[in-house]
């Protein structure tokens, strides 16, 4: 009786076919997802809006309270005079700029690097509430590459960045208390 034999080459071929199939499925799923997404999160803080505003806009101090951020480099302002900076982390760097600023109630920042596989803006709204304030952060994100869209949507979640930011900010504000 002739038997089927499993070989290392056969196992490698099966693994390659399975990997290619999974990659194709992930890309197909990513292509079906929209490029744009909106994520929102909020936080109640026992600090007045102007105090929270100071933390939100103190770019040089971001690495002290935002996990994963190694350092920040200030860049020349835009032609309209808006501040710009570059954040460095374990996955490289991203350039940001202030798009709109109405202290201490509304701040809009945006990615100012068109070569990245993602982009978008973040709107921070501070609303007085008793002795403190409520902060709402809305991300209007764009993920241009289908693979990144699929990973963002199915694995990490589009709102992950907003929620990580709010968690770090809550810890920062509690430490200042």
UniProtKB/TrEMBL annotation:
Alphabetical list of InterPro entries matching this protein: Polyketide_cyclase/dehydratase (IPR019587), START-like_dom_sf (IPR023393)
Gene3D superfamilies assigned to the protein according to its UniProt record, in alphabetical order: 3.30.530.20
Name of the molecule in the record: SRPBCC family protein
Organism: Kitasatospora purpeofusca
């Amino acid at each position: 009786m002739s038997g089927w034999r499993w070989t290392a080459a056969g196992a490698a071929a099966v693994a390659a076919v399975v990997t290619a199939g999974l990659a194709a499925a992930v890309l197909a799923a990513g292509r079906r997802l929209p490029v744009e997404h909106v994520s929102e999160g909020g936080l109640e803080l026992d600090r007045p809006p102007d105090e929270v505003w100071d933390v939100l806009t103190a770019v040089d101090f971001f690495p002290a309270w935002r996990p994963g951020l190694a350092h920040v480099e200030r860049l020349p302002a835009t032609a309209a005079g808006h501040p710009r900076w570059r954040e460095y982390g374990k996955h490289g760097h991203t350039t940001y700029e202030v798009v709109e600023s109405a202290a201490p109630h509304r701040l809009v920042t945006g990615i100012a690097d068109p070569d990245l596989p993602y982009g978008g803006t973040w709107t921070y709204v501070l609303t007085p509430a008793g002795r403190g304030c409520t902060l709402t952060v809305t991300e209007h994100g764009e993920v241009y590459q289908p693979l990144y869209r699929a990973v963002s949507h199915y694995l990490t979640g589009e709102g992950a960045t907003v929620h990580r930011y709010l968690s770090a900010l809550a810890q920062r504000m509690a430490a200042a208390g």
